[in-house]
Structure formats: structure tokens, C-alpha cells
Amino acid sequence: KRGAVVTAPALAGFFHGVQTIRQLLPAVVEAPAPVPSSGWRPMVWEIPGVRIADAPRFGWRGFMIDSCRHFLPVEVVKRVVDALALYKFNRLHWHLTEDQGWRLEIKKYPRLASVAAWRGPTKYGGFYTRDEVRDVVAYATARGVEVVPEIELPGHAQAALAAYPALGCTGGPYKVGTEWGIYKDVYCAGNEKVFDFLEGVLTEVCALFPGRFIHLGADECPKDRWKACPKCQARIRKEGLADEHALQSWFVHRAISFLEGKGKRCICWDEILEGGPPPGVIVQAWRAGEKAVSKAVAAGHEVIHSPYSHVYLNESPRGCTLEHVHTWDPTQEGERDALTPAALTRPELLLGGEACLWGEWCPPTRVGWQAFPRLLAVAETLWSPWRGRDFQDFHGRAMAQKGRLSYLGLTPGPERFV
Ligand code: ACM
Ligand code: ZN
Question: Per residue in 258-285, pLDDT tens?
């Protein structure tokens, strides 16, 4: 009756304890401006008398946003951070470079902002200035959320090539992508200038993002140009590599070694397993059918579970319903490519999971609609024990978040279409 007490072993625990108190208060506490009480009754903010002993199930509780296919203004990114903090996510994976747009200002390479950030005849696009990035990172850090930037290589690089065509195998010219899909023009693996460029970019990325992790993408890199490029073929021979998949691993390994020299841990999508994964890389497993989790864990790699079958929230809630997302669990076997019982002998390699919101069909006004309520099911999987899981019980608690999310500027969409 005299108040609330939070005890925790470390700063993050106090932070999450405060979020719990926030959740126990009425939704109106989230209103950006005072809301007048209705009728004669004064508005009373009460929290029930409860005792909560709580701890997260997984250490990696992430959400990925794609600022490339549609540019997401800083204000939208901050609203996402607000919601992540409230539901105790601790990683914002920020997808910043793509075929269709490069979104990060880099001092050494000004054409990334002046050319690579804009596409098509209407010059659709945008980029984050270094001050804006520092602002977002500080905002997230103050809310217990570590920002993990993703700088894609060797593929998904056409916007960078449009700005610096000498970095491609053919020399261009290239234009910033105006269609969705996978582009064949990627960084040339035989050209030392490419590594000068990437090291220049990554040096600035390390200065802007003081966190421990950097994501290097490494997904969906077609090998067509490398097969036809004399410089790439010479590299394969010189390094004694088996094929273009091994060349991809060699390429990524070189970037990882550079970043490890700066004290960073690197993450790659699960395609990195195809050419022999560089030691120490954290694998983000998205292709459920490839059994990426089992393969990565068998090879001793840490894994983040992100099966597109369950946690790609860009999928329509027609098929990927709230109830479907709520069935996701990184340790339950099945189509989700979970950690198999054999692999469970090293459960510490399963860092946790991450939902992804790819941006092709998601302009900034749609982020709340697309992410919620389904991201609440992801939050439950990553925080709470799997045992005792009950969709009906979860459903009531999820629906009670609607008003809260609307106050946060992220009005939820439907949980399913009938
Ligand atoms: C991915 O969906 N290409 C990681
Ligand atoms: Zn090449």
C-alpha cells in the first residue's frame, strides 16, 4: 500500500521492472498529452497489489526494421523503440543498406547520401544524418535497447554501386533499384578498392554505433557476376577457394576480421553457412527449411532464430495470424527449424529470436498495423517460459494492449483476416 519496490541484480532488470509497473498502470499513462477524466469521477491511477518474480527466457529479444525499401523517419523509429522497451525487447536490428536505397550518411563517401539514398524519377528516398543516428542510438540506449546496424555485403549492394560503380564487377553504370527482388550486381570480390570502401564505411559505422554487434547481411548474393568476372576468378585461384560460395565466405570473413579487430561481434543471415561459415560469426536463421539452426549449432555457432514461416511480420495477417505467431518457439521442433534435441545439448548457443518487418509493402504509416498485435506474441515467446502457454489467456492480455499502442502512435492491425 505504501508503494512499489523493484529489486534486480543489474541495471537492465531495474529497467524491465519499471516497464512492468508501466504495464500495470492504465493505458492512458501512455497518452502523449493529459487526457481529461470523463464525467464526475476523478481519474485514479492504481496498480494492483502484486508480487512478480520474473526473468527473461532469452537474452536476445530482437525486432528488425527495414528503412531501405521505405524510408522510416526518425520519429517512427523512436516510436518503435518505445514499444520495444515497453514489451522488454532489447535489440533493434536496423536494416540500413539495400539495392533500393542506402540510408546512412558516411562522411568519407558522400555519394552514398547524395546518390545512393534516392531512387527513380521522383527521387524517392532519404538518409539518416550522423547526428540523427547518434540521437536514435542514445534514445534506444536510454530505454534498454541496443541498436544493431545492418550493412549488407556482398549482395544487396546496388544502391552503393550506383554511387561508386567501380566497386562492381562490370563497372556499371548502375542505378538505385526501383523494383523489389534480388539484384545480380554485387560488390566485386576481386577488387581491393571494395575492401578499402567497406573498411572506410565500417570504421564510421563503429563510431556511430557503440554497441557490441554489427550485422553484415550476407544473404541472397547471386554469384552470376563473380562467375563471369576475371578479377573474382583470380581471387578464387589465389586464395585456393572451392567455388563462388567459398568466395562469399572469404569475402565476409575478411570484413568480420576487420570488425573483430575493432572489438565487434558480427551477425550474418544463414546463407553464410553455404560456403563454410567464418569462425565466431553469429548466424541469424531465417530459412526454416534449410535446418540452419541445427547446422549452425552443430558447427558451434551462436544462433538467432527468425524463421520467416513464423516471425516475418511483413507477411499478411491473413496467413500469418496472431495465433500462428504465438505457436512459434525456438525450441519446439517442426517447420520452424527449431533447435533439435541433439543440438539442445548446447542450449547456450541459442541466443534468442528476432521478428523481422521487411519494408517492401510497409510505408512508415503502416508500421504499427503490420507489427502489432503480432509482435506481442513474439515478446511472449522470447520472455516467458514455453510451459503453460495458453493462447486464450495471451489473447486477452494482447487485446488489452490496443489502447496503449494507439497512444504510442502504433495502432495495431487485425490479428487475422476472416
Ligand atoms: C532475408 O529475408 N533475406 C534475410
Ligand atoms: Zn568481380
Answer: 999 999 999 999 999 988 899 999 999 9
Looking at the chain, the whole-number percentage of residues with pLDDT higher than 90 is 84
93 C-alpha to ligand 2 centroid (Å): 29
- Residues 290, 337: Cα–Cα separation, whole Å: 8
C-alpha gyration radius of the chain = 22
**Cα 203 from Cα 193, distance rounded (Å):** 15
DSSP state for residue 122 in the 8-state scheme: T
- Distance in Å, CA 117 to ligand 1 centroid: 21
Q: Indicate the average pLDDT of the chain.
A: 94
Q: Which residues line ligand 1 (CB under 6 A)?
A: 219-220, 269, 286
Closest CA to 313 of 368, 377, 364, 374: 374
The torsion angles phi and psi of 137, rounded to 5 degrees, stand at -65, -40
Cα distances (Å, whole numbers) of residue 401 to 37, 300, 407: 20, 39, 10
List the one residue out of 99, 103, 124 whose CA is nearest residue 112: 103
DSSP letter for each residue of 265-293:
EEEEEGGGGTT-PPTTPEEEE--GGGTHH
Task: Dump pLDDT digits (tens) for 354-405.
Answer: 999 999 999 999 999 999 999 999 999 999 998 888 999 999 999 999 999 9
Joined grid coordinates for residue 285? 536463421
Tell which atom from ligand 1 comes closest to the C-alpha of 358.
Answer: 2
| pTM > 0.90: yes or no | yes
Which atom, in ligand 1's list, is nearest to the CA of 286? Answer: 4
Q: Which ligand is nearest to the CA of 215?
A: 1
Q: Using CA atoms, how far apart are residues 9 and 342, in angstroms rounded to an integer?
A: 32
Ligand 2 center to residue 278 CA distance, Å? 21
Of ligand 1's listed atoms, the one at least distance from the Cα of 220 is 3
Please determine, for residue 292, whether its predicted confidence score (pLDDT) is greater than 90. Answer: no
Residue identified by cell 476523478 is 42
β-bridge partners, 168: 187
| Ligand 2 center–CA 46 separation, angstroms | 64
Query: Closest Cα partner for 125 from 134, 136, 116, 137?
Result: 116
Q: Which ligand is nearest to the Cα of residue 312, counting in written order?
A: 1
Which residue reads 518503435 in cell numbers? 80
Nearest CA to ligand 1 atom 2: 286
Ligand 2 geometric centre to CA of 279 (Å): 24
- Mean pLDDT across the stretch 16-24? 95
CB of 244 within 8 A of CB of 222?
no
